[in-house]
Amino acid sequence: MIDHVSIGVSDLAKARDFYDQVLKALGQSRSRDIDIPGQGMVAHGYGPDAHGEEAIFWIGVPDHLDAKANRSGGVHLAFKAKTRAAVDAFYAAAIGNGAADNGKPGLRPHYHAGYYGAFVFDPDGNKLEACCHHPES
After folding, report:
1. Could you give the strand order of the β-sheet that contains 127-132, starting from the edge strand earlier in sequence?
2. What burial class does residue 71 get, using C-beta atoms within 10 Å of its C-beta: 0-12 exposed, 13-18 middle, 19+ buried?
3. What pLDDT shows up at residue 49?
4. C-alpha gyration radius of the chain
5. Interval 115-121 mean pLDDT
6. CATH top-level class of 5-61+74-132
7. Residue 99, SS3 per DSSP
8. Are 19 and 93 in contact, with CB atoms under 8 Å apart?
């Protein structure tokens, strides 16, 4: 249903370093860099394919960034994790790279019995989540 998602960031290099580490914990990598002549580096794309064919999540230089709106509920992105350990690794990588806590890793039975998730705010205030829907075996 969704081809890709893009969010604006206030500092592209800082956000690149943050998302390189956070998404690596979920088995994703930066696969595309968009460098426009006369504008410079304007965006980075992430996905499961390190060769740039499958960039699904993008960060970039926005026309306008409203950090106050982000922090009050503007953006919420949930990344799929294959295991609960990957959710834990996502959370540790995010906190270790400047994110603010918005819910430590754990079961969220109010969503459904096996829902395991962790929540953070990225350096621009975007709400991020990693979630796993599979019970641990």
Report:
1. 76-80, 127-132, 116-121, 100-107
2. middle
3. 64
4. 15
5. 94
6. alpha beta
7. coil
8. no
